[in-house]
Every structure is written in C-alpha cells, then in structure tokens.
Amino acid sequence: MSSILHRFDLNETIDVPSKFTFPFLYEPHPLAVEAAEQLKIYLSGFKNWFYDLNLGPKNYQHPLGKMFGVLVVEDNQGKLGHLWAYSGIITGEQNHSQFVPLIFNMFSENSKYVKENSQLDIWNQKIDLLEKDIIYLKSKKQLQKLEKENELLLYNQRKKHSQHKAERKKQREEAVDCLTEIAYQKLLDLHQTQGMHAKFLLKEYQVYLDTKMAPLEKIISLHEGKVKEYKAARKELSNKLQNWIFEQYQFLNANGDSKNALQLFKNIPPYIPPSGTGDCAAPKLLQYAYLNDLKPVALAEFWYGEPLKSQIRKHGHYYPSCRSKCEPILEHMLQGLEVDDNPMLINPALGKELPIIYEDDYLMAVNKPEEFLSVRGKTIEDSVEYRMKQRFPQATGPLIVHRLDMSTSGILVLTKSLKVHKKLQEQFEKRSVKKRYVALLDGNVEEDTGFIDLALRVDLDNRPFQMVDPVHGKSARTKFEVLERKDGKTKVYFYPITGRTHQLRVHASHPLGLNCPIIGDDLYGFKKDRLYLHAEQLEFIHPVTLKPVIIHVPAPF
C-alpha cells in the first residue's frame, strides 16, 4: 500500500472538512486540490503519460485525455494521505503501482471472462464464416438478379394483360351500336371468359416465376437460419457473461455493507448497469479506502489532457462524478459517511425578489435573478412560474412562455391566458422573437463578430450536460458580437437563433465554438459567485395589440 497511499507535503495547515464531498456538485476542498496538484505534477513527469500509463493502444484514435480522481483519506493513526485513480480501462489491464487497482479485474489470467470471452470469439468466427460463405453470397447475388428479371417479366406480362383488356373494352364500345342484343351478349360472355382466363394465366405465370426462385431462397433461408441460431447462442452467452461480471463488482460502503452492480441498478431503467460501470475513478477510490481501513475525507475529479470533440472537458478543470454509471453506486458507497448536503435540494431562490418589469392586461415580464428556477424542479417548487401563479391566481392556463437556465438572469415573459400564451409561443417557435444576451467570457475571443453552428444533444451518461453531436444532435446556432476585451476576459453579445438547452454555455466553452467558457459556469468552466450570463433584451409582436414590444434590462455586470 505504501506506493498507492501518497502523503501530503504541505507548507501550511489546512483544516480537514467536517463532511465528505457531495460528488455530483461540489467545490473542491483545498486538501483535494493539493492532492490533485501532486498528481498533475506526477503525470507531467512522463514523456507520454497516456501511453506510458498504458491507457490506450498505440493506434488509439481518440483525444489523449482522461478523467482522474483523488481521494483524501485518514489512516487509523490520524495521518492524512491521498489516493489516485483514473476512469475507465481500454487496454484490459491496470497495473500501475501509483494508482488504486480495479474493483474487479475481469482480464486476470484464466478468469471466467477470459475463458468465456474466447467462446464468444469462436461464435463470432463461426458467424463470420457463415456470413462470408461463397455459396451463400453467390446464391444471394443470383437471387437478386433473378428477382429483377422476374419483376421485369411480370411487369411486361401485366402490361400485355392491360392492353388486351383495353382492346376488349374498345371492341365492346364499337359493337354496342352495330350488333344485335343476342350477338352483343355473346361478345360480353366471350370477353368475360377471356378476362378470367387471362387473370388465371397471369397468376400461374407469377407462381412459375416464384418457383424458379424457390431453390435459391431455400439455400439462403437455411443459411440465415443458422446465422440467427448462432447469434442467439452468442447473445445468450454474452448476457450470462455480462451478468456474471456485474455480480463480481461488489461495492462496499462505510458501514461495511456490500452490494453488486446488478443489485444497485435493478430498480433503475433499463434495469441493467451501463457498460463500464464500476471503472470510474470515484468508486475505485472509495473501494480501496474501505478495504484498507482508510477513512474518506474529500474527493475531487479532474480532466487531464486533450479535450474531447463532443463533451466539453478542459485540461485541469474539476468535474462532478457521472450520474448514469456512478449515482446508484455512490449513493450506496457513501452510506455511513457524513456527506455535504445536496445543493440541488436547497432552494436557490429563497429570499430573492422577482421584480415585474412589464405588465398589461394580457402578459407580463420579470427580471429573473440568477440561481432562480423558471419552472418547478424535481424537488423544488419555488420558481418564476410558481410565484406568478401565486401573484395572479385568476390567470388561466400555462403562464410561462419560454425558459432561462436556473443560473441565467434576465428577462422572462409570461402570459395571463391560454389564448395569449399560444399566440406568443408561436412567435418563439417560429424564431421571430429577437433575443439578446450579455456574457462575460473567460479568455480572449479573437473575432469581433461571428456565427457558431454546433448541433447539441443531452449527454445520456451525464445529465444535464449537453454535448456536441453533428449526427444525432439538434441544430443549434448562435451569432456573437464582441463588446470589450479586458484583463484576459471578453464581454460579448449573444444572439441565439435556436433555443437549445445550455446552447450559449456550450457554444462559448467548446473548442469548436469560442473556446472561452462563460465566467461562473459550474458545468462547462469554473464556478464563481454567479454565472455571468444575462438575458438583456427581448423583441416581439404583442399577440393582442400587434404592436412591437421591446423589453430591456441592462446586465448587472
């Protein structure tokens, strides 16, 4: 344990926190920051830390960056130290002596995973051989060719059938005035017989063409049935192996209780753990501490290395633990520890005023303070919508027309009736409402004006974070204009064309955007006294008077 437990080299005394870090929203404790700095110094000593630590193969195609974690601990003699870990395993092993080990090493020699994974490889090879079988591929090609030929033959036959039908109709039309009633009836009977015979021949011809394809279809069907059978066997083995792996991930807590990954995710849709569960830094750090009689004191996780192309991860920045993989695990592992209160359960609007800046008989606008919900949250009811409903109890239908992030201040418009709400909301949906935001960015933006077009979607593994995704993301476009550059900071106007969640925050922070996070952005930058983003001006057509409305509230910064 001596090489894994690192000691502090402090020039000053730092008070030990009274409670452990709430991992999903926190300000790193000074002890955790000091531990992280020691780890960063260690990493900077490598010529190529990513490959030297065996974090990826030599042909690794992704950005060379990684999430690291530090855990400040206290031993049974009251001495402080810290543990290091990194999230995820790519190469199939983690054997560097300075970092805590895996909770479960599925890749150990002669393990069940290694043995059964070789069986999966055998199934893969069998399926691959079947899918590349020469007779099968040749039969598919022949069938495709025959299908096209038969389709053409059948088309021509149906065309002839239609032509003969049209000819018979023309004969009847010409004969109706020149034949006797008896002769005309005989012609009708003849045409009816000819029509039935033609339909029969067409049907028989289709059966004949289908019969020609039957031998090839049988070969293909038998072959594909075998492939389906093999794939089902592979899936069954894979599922059993995956469940066995999740059962081996046993997570301790401070009370000494242990639960496996399947137990922790059994009540959370889709009721199975996500891939990579248990390999994040935080669970590995806590597990090692519990196994070695070390008391967890403080936690911090940070990104080291190149930024990702989709998620916003900046070198050296601290980030919360991921929710999709870690929330159920950490909720269990932190039992028995005194943990900081969940900031998300505290009403941030408590004691804050909500001034009305515009009002008429049909709508109103408020100047929403920062850290104030637009609509009620999962656990907090207090919001702009809630307060306005209390203030205007006679108002019918939904009040709020659009939303601002909780951390964003500025103009928010509400209506007093459902009818007006619908009309005004149409303007927002058609993007005819002109919006202007003021933001203070951390860094120098080179261009004076510009346009950002980065499609966004929610990060499914780490809500509420948004990520850039040009394939599955929704269009997100923003115009910007620089107002001032001073002391390494840039003040800008943002003109959002679309209104995606966190659009301005991501467009400011992402390397493909301005690469300058909004000051105070606790998700995509660094936390400060507030998020320096303000909805300053809103222009729209009044839904009743049809006159232009311009509402302006200067930024408080």
Q: What do these coordinates show?
A:
- The chain has 557 residues and is of the alpha+beta class.
- It is 36% helix and 19% strand.
- Strands 7, 8, 9, 10, 11, 14, 15, 16 and 17 form a 9-stranded mixed sheet that branches.
- A hairpin with a 6-residue loop joins strand 16 (533-541) and strand 17.
Helix and strand run = EHHEEHHHEEHHEHEEHEHEEEEEEHEE
Helix run count: 11
Average pLDDT value? 92
Uncertain stretches of 5 or more adjacent residues: none
- The CATH superfamily name of the largest domain is Pseudouridine synthase
**Assembly state (oligomeric):** single chain
Structure summarized in a few sentences:
This protein has 557 residues and is α+β, with helices and mostly antiparallel strands. It has eleven helices and 17 strands. A hairpin with a 6-residue loop joins strand 16 and strand 17 (548-552).
Features:
single chain; 557 residues; alpha+beta; Pseudouridine synthase; four-stranded antiparallel sheet; 11 helices
